[in-house]
Amino acid sequence: MAPLLHILNGPNLNRLGMREPSIYGEETLADIEAMLAARLEERGWGLVFRQTNHEGELVEFIHAADGGKGIAINAGAFTHTSVAIGDAVRSVSVPVVELHLSNVFAREAFRHHSYIAPAARGVICGFGAYSYWLAAEALIHINEAGEA
Ligand code: DQA
After folding, report:
1. Which terminal residue of the chain has fewer beta carbons within 10 Å of its beta carbon, N or C?
2. Ligand 1 centre from 129 Cα, in Å?
3. Ligand 1 centre from 77 Cα, in Å?
4. At what angle do helices 130-144 and 29-42 cross, to 10 degrees?
5. How far apart are the C-alpha atoms of 142 and 111, rounded to whole Å?
6. pLDDT for 61-118, tens place per residue?
């Protein structure tokens, strides 16, 4: 079976495409999932792609991903508010990459703080839907370099 990457999405990301498209773009989450699935398949990787609007469920998605090869997470607003999500990231042994569509550092001050970043291998933000592919590439690199 192909090694699995888990791409996890938090609140409001199910609204992509119709949600503030000038900030988050016109692509839907289903478009992003399809793009990732196709590119990962070409590279011999499998994909688990999930979204939830509930903090506790996102914690459970993180725990469930511990058997895979890595997690790329766009936790949405929970990034800036959730000690529980940060603790969940610290509780797993797979590499975790935090990602955002928008450049959170060019936005409101409350988006500059992340509870996830200190526990993550790295952070990718500001490249729209392409942030997802960059995060997946980072996880592939970490695994192929033996740094997982
Ligand atoms: C986001 C940035 C967050 O600040 C915001 O709350 C989101 C989306 C992004 O992908 O740019 O919901 O994570």
Report:
1. N
2. 12
3. 6
4. 30
5. 27
6. 999 999 999 999 999 999 999 999 999 999 999 999 999 999 999 999 999 999 999 9
Which residue, judged by its Cα, is nearest atom 7 of ligand 1?
Answer: 76
Q: How far from 69 is each of 2, 7, 46, 47, 136, CA to CA, in Å?
A: 10, 11, 10, 10, 11
Token pair belonging to 73: 């997470």
- Structurally, the chain folds into a number of domains equal to 1
Active site residue 24: yes
Q: Residue 21, Cβ neighbours under 10 Å: how many? A: 11
Looking at the whole model, is its pTM more than 0.90? yes
| Average pLDDT value over all residues in the chain | 97
